Amino acid sequence: METFRCAECGNALSVPVRLVELPPQPPSSLLDCHHVNPPLLDPGTYAIDETAYGCDQVVDTVVLSPGDVRGTRIVHDLVFIGCWSLAGGNLSVACESCGVLVASRTDDCRVAQETRFYPSVVVREANVDGVDDTADPFALIADWDNAPSDTRRHAWLPKPTRPRPELTATRWGGRGVREDLYRDDPPA
Fold first, then answer.
1. Which of 10, 33, 39, 121 has the highest CB neighbour number within 10 Å of its CB?
2. How far is CA 161 from CA 74, 75, 109, 129, 164, in A?
3. What's the rounded Cα separation, in Å, for the pair 67 and 177?
4. pLDDT tens for residues 111-154?
5. Nearest to 40 by CA among 105, 113, 110, 109
6. Gap between the Cα atoms of 60 and 120, Å rounded
């Protein structure tokens, strides 16, 4: 078992994964055009693609299932959008700690989901005991890193960096959104 870390700051970028052979892409006839397709690799595994990939023609990219990736964020300004979702092919996923671009993400129609770490910006570390060293025992089962979704009337809203009620009142004045945003009770 091995884990991947950011070469710049050492932030953990994956759960412990084991090396497998890269499977071929499934035929497009088996993939759905306008729904979420399954990942290329099983959870807890990774593969190294020796062929050139993406706009930069990078070789030896590390392919993981998106559910095995931790400590990253998508940089929306750099994402290539295909006909349905993220088309991949360029660095668009950054380390959450230091902001260095570390991976690309693919989740478009007629392709399997995958995250590709670029070898020059990640470090592979052996996990000698083969046990997940994170505090969360359910890390391989589900993604518990995020808070539960907000079930309020106006759905999900980004976390404000600084509360700015004057902007909220101006933007949505009179529709009751301000009261829902700044309630004291926890979401149901």
1. 39
2. 18, 17, 34, 39, 9
3. 33
4. 788 899 999 999 999 876 655 444 444 454 455 555 555 555 55
5. 113
6. 10
Q: 100 Cβ partners below 8 Å, 6+ apart?
A: 6, 7, 8, 9, 94, 121
Tokens 């005991």 appear where? 129
Residues 6+ apart with CB under 8 A from 45: 17, 18, 19, 20, 64, 65, 68
Tokens of 36: 């979420």
DSSP 146-175: SPPPP-STT---PPPSS--HHHHHHHSTTS
Would you put residue 83 in left (φ > 0), alpha (ψ -120 to 50) or beta? alpha
99, 8 in Cβ contact below 8 A?
no
Are 27 and 153 in contact by the 8 Å Cβ rule? The answer is no
Strand segments (E) across the chain: 2-6, 18-19, 45-49, 61-64, 72-74, 93-95, 101-106, 114-117, 122-126
114 has which bridge partners? 106
Residue type, position 7, single letter: A
